[in-house]
Design goal:
Layout lengths: L42 E7 L17 H7 L3 E7 L5 H10 L3 H4 L8 H4 L6 H7 L3 E6 L23 E3 L4 H4 L13 E4 L7 H17 L23 E6 L7 E4 H4 L34 H31 L6 E7 L4 E2 L5 E2 L5 H4 L3 E4 L6 E8 L3 H8 L14 H5 L9 E11 L8 E3 L2 E3 L11 E8 L3 E6 L6 E5 L17 H12 L4 H17 L1 H4 L9
Parallel strand pairs: 1-6, 1-8, 2-12, 3-4, 3-6, 5-7
Antiparallel strand pairs: 2-11, 8-11, 9-10, 13-15, 13-16, 14-15, 16-17, 17-18
Helix pairs in contact: 1-9, 7-9
The chain binds calcium ion (CA).
Length: 548
C-alpha cells in the first residue's frame, strides 16, 4: 500500500469526545491510606525512557544492573510480552498518548502530528486534566529529537498539560566530546555528577514538585519549614509524566556507570541469515554498520551505562513517593516507546519489525491490585484505557486499545489478543543519496521515513501471536517473514516460504490484513491534508524554536 498525500476531498473524522468532569469513583484503591489529597482518586506517576529495550535485570536480562527498577517490579505487574505499535518515537508516542493505532492518527514519521487527523483528540493526560487532575510533563513524553530537542519542547502537545518543563544538562552542552560512530551509536563517559545530567535534572524537578505539593516546605520568604503543623493537602491528584531521554543516542552517562561494565558480549549472529530476510526488514546495508567488534562493544557498554544511570534517577522518584507516603494511592507506570537492536541480526537501533524492537518494557504498579509476571500479549495503546479505568474516567469512544485491568487483577487470566506493529519506509532513488541510504537494486530507503508528495512510502506490518510473528513488507510485494519462537527464539530462520508452515502463514496473513483498511487510511490522509492546511495558523508552530 502506497501512501498518497494529496487531498481530493475532505472526509470528516468522527471522534466522539470524552465527557469531562463526571469521573466515577476510582476502583480498587484504599480510601484513606497514605498522604492523600482531598480528592481520593489515585495519582499517576508516568515514567518513560527513550529507545529502551528489555536488556536489563528488572526485565529478565541480568547483564544490566537496575537495582531501583528491581525494587519497583517487586511491587507490581511486569508485562513480559508488551509490544509497541511502531518502533519509532513519533508514531509510537503519538499512538500511546492518543490510544490509537498510527493509521488512525496518520503519524508514521517524526514530523507527523496526530491533531491533523483528529484535531479535537483528548490525549491520555488531557483526559486527566479535563477531570481535574494536575498534569505535568518533565522532559520527553511526546516526540522530541534527541539530542537536538533536549531543553526544547519538541513536538509537545500543550493541551495535555497544566505545566511542562524542558530540562537541559551537561550531556547536551558537552556533545562536542562525543566518541564513536552514529551507527551503532556515539557515546561519552562524562566526568560529572548525576545531577549535572539532563535526566537527573528531570528527576530532581519531579522530586521538587512532589515535595512542594505534599511537604510543609516553609514560607515563600525564606522562613523555616513548619514542622509543627501538618503539610497542606493539594486539592487535586496528579498525573506526573517524567520522560527520560536516555538511553537514546548519543549514549551519555557519568563515568562511574561505564566502570560497571568492563566487558560486554555481542549477540551471536550469522550474516548469512540476511539472505533469507527481505531487504526492507533491515535498516542498513552493512553488517553492524561495517564496524569492528570493538566499536560495537564500546557502544553496547555505553548503552548499558545509560540504562543504569536512568535506573538511578527512577530510584529518586520511588524514594520520594515512599518519603511522602504516596505509595498507597499512586499508580506507577514505566514504559519505553519501543525496543532497540544491540547488534541483533547485525543491526543497531530501531525501525525494524524484529522482536527486539517491536517489544519493550512495560510495568504497572496499581495499589490494591496484584503483582507478578504477566505473559499475556499486550500493546502500548492499552495504557490509555487502563489508566483511565483505574482512575474511574470515561474514555473517548474512538480508542483502539483495551483496558488491562483484568490482568492487573489476575496476571494469569485468559487473554488471547494479538499485537500489531508497523514501520514505514520511504523509498529514494540512487541519484538522491542520504547518509542513511540502504540500496536495493535501483532504489533505496531512508532510516527515518518521511511522508511527502515527492516520494513513495511503503509499510512493513507485523502481527505477534503466542508462538509466531508474521510480517509483510509493502503487503508482501517486498517480502514476508515468519518466525517460530518455540523453535527459533532469536529469529534466525525465516519460515515464510516453508511449505510446512503454509497454513500458519495463511491464518496470520488474514489476521494481519484484518487490522487495517487501506481505504480508511487513504481517507485519513486526505483529512490530514485538509486539516493541516486549515490549521496552519493555530497548530504551527506550537512553540517558536529557541536558539541558545
Ligand atoms: Ca525512541
Amino acid at each position: 500500500m502506497k501512501i498518497q498525500l494529496l487531498a481530493k476531498s475532505a472526509i470528516a473524522f468522527s471522534a466522539a469526545m470524552v465527557a469531562s468532569g463526571n469521573a466515577a469513583q476510582a476502583q480498587g484503591f484504599p480510601a484513606t491510606a497514605g498522604n492523600q489529597t482531598t480528592d481520593d482518586r489515585p495519582n499517576v506517576l508516568f515514567i518513560s525512557s527513550d529507545d529502551l529495550c528489555s536488556a536489563m535485570n528488572a526485565f529478565g536480562d541480568p547483564r544490566v544492573h537496575t537495582p531501583n527498577l528491581d525494587r519497583l517490579v517487586q511491587m507490581g505487574v511486569v508485562f513480559n510480552r508488551a509490544y509497541n505499535q511502531s518502533p519509532l518515537s513519533g508514531p509510537s508516542r503519538s499512538s500511546i498518548m492518543t490510544g490509537c493505532r498510527p493509521d488512525k492518527i496518520g503519524v508514521h514519521d517524526l514530523s507527523g502530528k496526530f491533531r491533523y487527523a483528529i484535531p479535537d483528540a483528548v490525549t491520555l493526560p488531557q483526559l486527566f486534566k479535563n477531570n481535574g487532575y494536575y498534569t505535568c510533563r518533565i522532559g520527553k513524553i511526546y516526540h522530541a529529537g534527541v539530542p537536538s530537542d533536549i531543553g526544547q519542547p519538541g513536538s509537545d502537545d500543550p493541551q495535555s498539560w497544566t505545566i511542562a518543563y524542558n530540562p537541559i544538562g551537561k550531556d547536551r552542552t558537552d556533545e562536542y566530546l562525543l566518541k564513536g560512530n552514529t551507527t551503532p551509536g556515539t557515546w561519552l563517559a562524562l566526568d560529572c555528577n548525576d545531577d549535572e545530567m539532563t535526566d537527573a535534572i528531570s528527576a530532581n524537578v519531579a522530586v521538587s514538585i512532589l515535595r512542594g505539593r505534599y511537604s510543609n516546605v516553609g514560607s515563600a520568604y525564606g522562613g523555616p519549614a513548619r514542622t509543627d503543623r501538618p503539610a497542606p493537602k493539594p486539592r487535586n491528584p496528579f498525573f506526573l509524566a517524567v520522560g527520560f531521554y536516555r538511553p537514546h543516542i548519543p549514549y551519555i552517562a557519568p563515568k562511574k556507570y561505564f566502570d560497571m561494565y568492563p566487558e560486554v558480549t555481542l549477540p551471536e549472529n550469522f550474516e548469512e541469515e540476511w539472505l533469507t530476510k527481505p531487504v526492507l526488514a533491515r535498516t542498513g546495508n552493512k553488517w553492524n554498520g561495517g564496524l569492528s567488534d570493538e566499536e560495537c562493544e564500546n557502544s553496547m557498554r555505553a548503552y548499558y551505562a545509560s540504562v543504569t544511570f536512568i535506573d538511578a534517577q527512577i530510584g529518586k522518584l520511588i524514594d520520594t513517593l515512599e518519603e511522602l507516603k504516596l505509595m498507597d494511592n499512586t499508580i506507577i507506570v514505566f514504559w519505553s516507546d519501543h525496543g532497540y537492536m544491540l547488534g541483533d541480526h547485525g543491526l543497531w537501533q530501531k525501525q525494524t519489525l524484529f522482536e527486539r524492537t517491536a517489544h519493550q518494557p512495560l510495568f504497572i504498579y496499581a495499589p490494591g491490585y496484584t503483582k507478578g509476571n504477566c505473559n499475556a500479549i499486550v500493546e502500548l495503546i492499552d495504557l490509555y484505557p487502563t489508566l483511565a479505568e483505574l482512575a474511574g474516567l470515561q474514555t473517548p469512544d474512538y480508542l483502539d486499545g483495551k483496558s488491562l485491568l483484568p490482568l492487573l487483577k489476575d496476571v494469569n487470566t485468559t487473554w488471547n489478543y494479538p499485537a500489531f506493529t508497523q514501520q514505514a519506509r520511504t523509498l529514494w532513488g540512487e541519484d538522491e543519496p542520504t547518509r542513511y541510504m540502504t540500496f536495493r537494486g535501483d532504489a533505496a530507503f531512508t532510516f527515518n521515513p518521511s511522508l511527502n508528495d515527492r516520494r513513495t512510502t511503503v509499510f512493513g506490518r507485523s502481527v505477534r501471536v503466542d508462538r509466531y510473528r508474521y510480517t509483510e513488507w509493502d503487503e508482501g510485494r517486498e517480502g514476508c517473514e515468519l518466525y517460530d519462537y518455540e523453535t527459533d527464539p532469536e529469529e534466525h530462520v525465516n519460515l515464510a516460504t516453508d511449505k510446512k508452515h503454509k497454513k500458519t502463514v495463511e491464518e496470520l496473513k488474514a489476521l494481519l490484513h484484518s487490522s487495517y483498511d487501506v481505504e480508511e487510511i487513504s481517507r485519513t490522509q486526505e483529512t490530514i491534508a485538509k486539516n493541516r492546511a486549515a490549521a496552519q495558523q493555530s497548530l504551527e508552530p506550537l512553540y517558536p524554536r529557541v536558539t541558545y
